[in-house]
Write a structure and sequence with these properties.
Strand order of the largest sheet: 2-4-5-1-6-7-8-11
CATH class: Alpha Beta
Strand content: 15-25%
Number of helices: 12
Number of domains: 1
CATH superfamily: P-loop containing nucleotide triphosphate hydrolases
Bound molecules: guanosine-5'-triphosphate, magnesium ion
Mean pLDDT: 90
Structural class: alpha/beta
Helix content: 25-40%
């Protein structure tokens, strides 16, 4: 059995967790072919992702893409084998997805358990809620404080390194030029200051690596306006042209950062020859080479940034 690595998807209801996974899966073949890597879902994950993909593409059928599709009903794990194209997978990657409503779970035991098991956490952020109307809807839609509390509860006595990836979605509008991309980064740093402050605490500073990687899960649908009904916002989007196609962008970036982070753990000299992670990961030569090749393409400008733990991605060997 290949080693299993778990990643958890965090984010309030409807922010786009499942869509990020779908875009990642859909684009994998194209983006990682040069590294000779393939990501193979198990049959159940494959069926679910295929369905979600149909829904995402369906956004392009409306002139006003408002979404409003079904949310995730139950916790759902998406399982993938990662390895050489045409060979047995060397690694099993499991993404733990669950309904955003789980953030409100009173005892929070399920979440805490998942958070402790997972080597990486992806936080989906609804970018228009953060950026539009002076961020008026950000608290309601993204629940940054609640997210921070989950980390406080779960990372109390953290022993091993962890990767936290913030993924702004529906961010097409804010990535058209460098100046706007800077604004997006500025707003994230500002609105998640409490979380980033926590990551900088003494015990976590050397353990947590944190990056921002915006993913355009559709690519050709951009924010248009907000209409408020019964004191709730409804976000409206429009296609960039009447014949716009589904064209996600940068959905490979979270995975590239994950591979880069794991590769560094493998080589980390601080752990010495008895590096438990090295033994545990047990990566073969192929995977090491492929991870290095794909890590070379991690973006760090144009809306992408490493917030903490730059050295957790630097490999000298
Ligand atoms: N306009 C626009 N809508 C999107 C985009 N990505 C996803 N959506 C829509 O946003 C809605 C919510 O996305 P999901 O991925 O289901 O969100 P989620 O976080 O998994 O939601 P829960 O499972 O309910 O917690 C869906 O209706 C998607 O079609 C995008 O890039 N642009
Ligand atoms: Mg979902």
């Amino acid at each position: 059995m290949p080693k299993e690595l778990k990643v958890t998807m965090l984010g309030h209801r409807g922010v786009g967790k499942t869509s990020v996974l779908t875009a990642m899966y859909e684009q994998f073949y194209d983006r990682f072919e040069e590294a000779d890597l393939q990501l193979t879902p198990d049959p159940e994950s494959s069926a679910l992702l295929q369905e979600r993909l149909g829904e995402l593409k369906g956004l392009l059928n409306d002139f006003e893409a408002t979404g409003g599709l079904e949310g995730t009903e139950n916790p759902q794990s998406f399982n993938f084998g990662l390895g050489k194209i045409g060979a047995k997978p060397s690694l099993q990657l499991t993404f733990q997805d669950f309904p955003g409503g789980y953030l409100d779970d009173k005892d929070g035991e399920f979440l805490k358990k998942v958070m402790r098991e997972c080597v990486a956490v992806l936080i989906a952020i609804d970018a228009p809620a953060l950026m539009e109307a002076k961020g008026k809807w950000h608290e309601l839609m993204n629940r940054p404080k609640q997210i921070c509390d989950i980390f406080r509860r779960s990372y109390g006595n953290l022993k091993e390194p962890r990767l936290v990836i913030l993924v702004p979605v529906r961010c097409e509008k804010y990535l058209q030029n460098e100046e706007d991309a800077k604004k997006l980064l500025y707003c994230i740093k500002d609105q998640y200051a409490e979380l980033f402050g926590f990551f900088k605490s003494e015990n976590l500073l050397t353990k947590i690596a944190c990056v921002i990687t915006p993913v355009q899960t559709v690519g050709t649908v951009i924010f248009n306006n907000i209409r408020v009904e019964n004191q709730r916002p409804r976000f409206y989007f429009r296609k960039i042209s009447h014949d716009a196609q589904y064209l996600p962008k940068d959905s490979d970036q979270p995975l590239r950062y994950l591979l880069s982070f794991l590769l560094k753990l493998h080589y980390d000299t601080k752990w010495g020859p008895l590096n438990p992670i090295r033994r545990w990961l047990g990566w073969d030569k192929f995977l090491l080479k492929a991870a290095r090749k794909s890590a070379d393409k991690c973006k760090s400008a144009g809306g992408f940034a490493i917030i903490q733990g730059q050295d957790r991605f630097e490999i000298n060997k």
